[in-house]
Amino acid sequence: MQxxxxxxxxxxxxxxxxxxxxxxxxxxxxxxxxxxxxxxxLSPIQIQFLIFLRFHAAEQCxxxxxxxxxxxxxxxxxxxxxxxxxKGLLRKMxxxxxxxxxxxxxxxxxxxxxxxxxxxxxxxEPLSSFSEGQKEALFTGLIQLIRELNKQGIISxxxxxxxxxxxxxxxxxxxxxxxxxxxxxxxxxxxxxxHEGGR
Length: 199
Ligand code: SF4
What we know:
The structure is a single chain. The chain is mainly alpha-helical. The protein folds into 2 domains: 1-129, Arc Repressor Mutant, subunit A; 131-187, no CATH class. It has helices spanning 14-40, 44-55, 63-69, 74-86, 107-116, 121-127, 132-151, and strands spanning 90-92, 103-105, 167-170, 173-176, 181-183. Strands 3-4-5 form a 3-stranded antiparallel sheet, with no helix packed on it. Helix 1 (14-40) packs across helix 2 (44-55), helix 2 crosses helix 5 (107-116) and helix 3 (63-69) packs across helix 4. It is globular, with a radius of gyration of 19 Å. The protein starts with 13 loop residues before the first helix and ends in a 16-residue tail after the last strand. The model has no long low-confidence stretch (mean pLDDT 89). Bound molecules: iron/sulfur cluster (SF4).
């Protein structure tokens, strides 16, 4: 059986090489998040929370939602949120239940989240040298892979076109009923604010 992590020169199956490449890129994200966290005196997950809260609607800014989004327990999320509140980067909007209140970025949190959101630039910048065709092929392949991993319950992305109530396939093409227009493969969304359904 071929193994993606085999170093054998005979092991030429492309799927395995793609798996190894994705692993390396995942490692790059881990390193970049740690680097950013070190500079800001925050943990990688705290950085990810701040960035998420910066760009998502108020109803998605709760401990419960973050726990589902990042596949963490509510207790783990609550611990990080408590630290971010203590640091003056977040504030509670409702105080009824420690695990269900909504959270909002403070002015300092907003600034810091805006800065932290650039942590992945070293990954993004080299992509600008790719041709449009290369970028489209890469994106199409990745979104298909994410869809399959989502179906298997490995990736919890709930706001992509493929899981949206407004999405349908028309004559083999992607179509958004809300926008009432066909979506080209490079127009499919992974995190759409108009997403319908999911949770
Ligand atoms: S509403 Fe957004 S997620 Fe849903 S199909 Fe349209 S573009 Fe895609």
